[in-house]
Specification:
single chain; 121 residues; mainly alpha; 6 helices; elongated
């Protein structure tokens, strides 16, 4: 079976990223460890070892099972923020962009409204 990582030992940052994402996602869904393991098609011990960052070898097949169990892409798992602070910072960046986009749309609407007021009879 092909290993996801060329080095059989997943580096500590990758383990932390995946573990933090799984813990946060599982808790936000209100799932127990057993329920998450069942949804991913893994044993409870195997899933728990991954969520705790204790498993050094993760095959592409296992990572795909986890991604499917959580309804996300493998890329999402691999690029997940390492800590809650990283996750919050990522969300802040996303929200800042969304806020700018919303403000831009509102400015356009207000401009159109003002133009209509000036030209209405």
């Amino acid at each position: 079976m092909r290993k996801l990582y060329k080095n059989p030992n997943v580096n500590s940052q990758e383990k932390e990223n995946i573990a933090a994402y799984l813990r946060q996602a599982r808790q936000s869904k209100g799932w127990t460890l057993q329920e998450a393991a069942n949804r991913c098609g893994l044993s409870r011990n195997g899933y728990t070892a991954i969520e705790n960052g204790e498993r050094n070898r993760i095959t592409a097949e296992v990572l795909n099972k986890i991604a499917n169990g959580f309804g996300v892409s493998i890329t999402t798992l691999a690029n997940a923020p390492a800590s809650q602070d990283d996750l919050i910072a990522m969300m802040d960046r996303y929200l800042a962009k969304e806020e700018r986009d919303c403000l831009d749309r509102l400015a356009k609407i207000r401009s159109m409204r003002d133009m209509l007021k000036r030209f209405s009879i």
